[in-house]
Design a protein that fits this description.
Layout (H helix, E strand, L loop, with lengths): L1 H23 L1 H17 L3 E9 L4 E10 L8 E12 L9 E18 L2 E2 H9 L2 H11 L5 E9 L1 E6 L6 E5 L2 E6 L8 H21 L6 H9 L6
Parallel strand pairs: 4-6, 4-7
Antiparallel strand pairs: 1-2, 2-3, 3-4, 4-5, 6-9, 7-8
Helix pairs in contact: 2-4, 2-5, 5-6
Length: 231
């Protein structure tokens, strides 16, 4: 009996130690997941400046998430999200799906580069729609839990249109609000959420860029031809 008690005590200590490690390293784990899944989803480099998840406060913050341009385009990031704030339902953090009350993406900047072989955003979209993107993201996530987001807001964004031979032009992105994301399908995983966010952001960017004054001819035709891709 004594050996059994000692064995149980050791097991409890090990479980407590693992739990403490996961909680104390939660920021690092989330950051690693974003970078890894994001790279598989977009086919390009994804970086994050910092991540802070406070389970006790029911809140989180991610700063300066950048998605690099595909090969063949400028060294500027294709997409930069200035800040992401998360309001968690603390009672739903341990469940499956995890319930997020509100997710706000502030000051996103989208750079739209047009060239002879299409655009940088078109290249990103093509990779996101490919089998290797979904398969790679799924492998990176393993048995990740699902997410339900009551309200997702993208606000105060801008798009920069870069066309060869023309000066760069800026346009403001209209605010985007998505509600009940994943609620009707038992939740979404990180890759599915990322795809929904990027689709909404890219669609808004294309609409804004296509309506810029002076965007005419071939450039405008390329932009308008991409409008249906992000449904």
């Amino acid at each position: 009996m004594k050996k059994i008690v000692i064995g149980l005590a050791v097991l409890v200590v090990l479980i407590a130690g693992v739990a403490f490690f996961l909680l104390s390293n939660l920021d690092t784990l989330v950051k690693t997941a974003i970078v890894d899944v994001g790279a598989k989803l977009t086919g390009t480099k994804v970086t994050v400046s910092s991540v802070h998840i406070g389970l006790s406060e029911g809140a989180g913050k991610i700063t300066d998430l950048e998605i690099a341009n595909p090969d063949g385009f400028s060294a500027n990031p294709a997409i930069k999200l200035g800040g992401i704030s998360v309001s968690l339902d603390r009672a739903g953090v341990t469940g499956n799906p995890i319930v997020i009350k509100e997710l706000v993406i502030s000051a996103p900047a989208v750079r739209y580069e047009l060239g002879d072989k299409g655009s940088n955003l078109d290249r990103l979209k093509q990779h996101m729609a490919s089998p290797q993107a979904s398969e790679g993201a799924a492998k990176s996530q393993g048995n990740a839990r699902k997410l339900v987001i009551d309200k997702l807001t993208i606000t105060k964004g801008e798009v920069v249109l870069a066309v060869p031979g023309l000066p760069a032009a800026n346009a403001t992105l209209g605010d985007i609000v998505l509600t009940n994301v994943g609620s009707g399908q038992g939740g979404v995983d990180e890759a599915q959420l990322g795809e929904q966010v990027l689709n909404a952001l890219l669609q808004s960017a294309i609409h804004s860029a296509s309506n810029l004054p002076g965007v005419l001819g071939q450039a405008q035709d390329q932009l308008k031809s991409l409008l249906p891709f992000a449904k």
